[in-house]
Amino acid sequence: MMLKGKKAIITGASRGIGKAIAIKFAEHGAFVGINFLRSYEKAKETLQVVKQHSDGILLQGDVGKFNEAKRIVEEFVEKAGRIDILVNNAGIYKRKKFDELDEKQWDKTMETNLKACFNMCKNALPFMKEGGKIIFISSQLALKGSSHGADYAASKAGMLGFMRSLALELAKRKINVNAVAPGTIDTDLIANYTEEQRKKRIEEIPMKRLGLPEDVANVCLFLASDLANYVTGEVILVTGGLYIG
Q1: HEC string of 112-151?
Q2: Residue 193 confidence (pLDDT)
Q3: Average pLDDT value for residue range 81-102
Q4: What are phi and psi of 65, to 5 degrees?
Q5: Is pLDDT above 90 for 192?
């Protein structure tokens, strides 16, 4: 029970990595706020699993919009009283070459992946005290770039700059700020892979398997716990050796 009594918000938690984090935190005793945008049924399923272990609430809204992020935080605090852990996980990834990328998609990616982090941190920090933990879900592409997602890679790299800056600023308040950079994780983001593409990617990964959402959730559990009290400003890669930086 590494998070017993802790209050945690996870953005984009209706499925995939966010869902795995929400369930993992609940298994270790946290009260979990499950943010989602449209997937109500999926979010409800996540909450049902969370309630098998701890408790939580659904928080519908677009964290890319400042006022909606503010409302989400206020709804959570009204129920939970405070925020101990914030996981900035919400994100989108539309694979396109740069010559196919238009301004609308660029702006939407930045809003969902990067501005949402500002929105949530800005609104959550007044309710976070000493010992708080902020975790960003970035990507290996933030470090190595992407040949089919310049907007995504840029947004995830920006997230790391923001994370490091917050870590420096919040250290005096004993709030830890870190990031996890997953590799190829078996979620909806790769649902359109053909069997051949999956096999090719697995061959490229030194550990010879795709990552699971639980692999990322386990690292987040460590970063959210007191075991990580002297860890801040760090990026932990979860790639099975696909990228070692």
Answers
A1: HHHHHHHHHHHHHHHHCCCCCEEEEECCCHHHHCCCCCHH
A2: 87
A3: 94
A4: -105, 125
A5: no
Confidence (pLDDT) at 180: 98
Contacts 24+ apart (CB under 8 A), 98-102: 98/150, 101/150, 101/151
Please tell me the predicted confidence (pLDDT) of residue 191.
80
Tokens in use for 233? 């400003």
Tokens of 229: 């009290």
Q: Please state, as a whole number, how many other Cβ atoms lie within 10 Å of the Cβ of residue 192.
A: 8
Assign 3-state DSSP to the chain and report helix, strand, coil percentages, each to 5. 50, 15, 35
Work out the end-to-end distance of the chain between its first and last CA atoms, rounded to an integer number of angstroms: 32
Burial of 33 (0-12, 13-18, 19+ CB in 10 A): buried
Domains of the chain (ranges; CATH) run 7-238 (3.40.50.720)
pLDDT of residue 190: 82
Q: What is the DSSP letter of 111?
A: I
Report the SS3 class of residue 43. helix
Report the relative pairing of strands 31-36 and 55-60 from DSSP bridges.
parallel
Could you give the CA distance from residue 65 to residue 120 in angstroms, rounded to a whole number? 10
| Residue-level pLDDT at 125 | 98
Active site residues: 152
